[in-house]
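Throughout this chapter, every protein is written as a compact record of paired, labelled lines. An example of such a record is reproduced below:
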Amino acid sequence: MRDCEVVVGRTFVVAMEDGDDFFASLRVFCGRNKIQQAYIPGFIAGFRKAKLVGTVEEVTDKNAPVWSHVYLENVEALGCGTIAVNEAGKFSPHIHVTVGRKIQGADAYTSHLLEAEVIFLAEIMIVEITAPKLVRIKNQRLYDVALLSFMKG
């Protein structure tokens, strides 16, 4: 386990609108407000379409991450996550959601969010982290999964 005390900066409420691309809008918001790192304690949203990490195929290495996705439409979402940069300094959000398929009796999926288009709204709380610097660094021993690292000093 690794841990680090963080310094919290500004807090925002972001209201995305019907048709917005979730990640593109998040990137624009962060760029406009000069946010490179933050946490998202929670959000609610409707997604017209969404891609979540998942598979229905047989998995040969049960310890390896799943890189494929499931495609869902017309879902309600509850999510949270973090925003950092990758080793190249590029925007690197990590968002997990639980979504319910409204027209299938609210059947639920929970996983890593890859893509989403907002239907009606997304209401997101974003809390800026001003220190330390947070960077996602790929770990070769763990299938190149990018892990959150704390850069002190």
In short: The longest strand covers residues 107-131. The chain is about 5% helix and 60% strand. The two ends are 20 Å apart (CA to CA). Strands lie at 7-17, 38-53, 69-86, 91-101, 107-131, 133-139, 145-151.
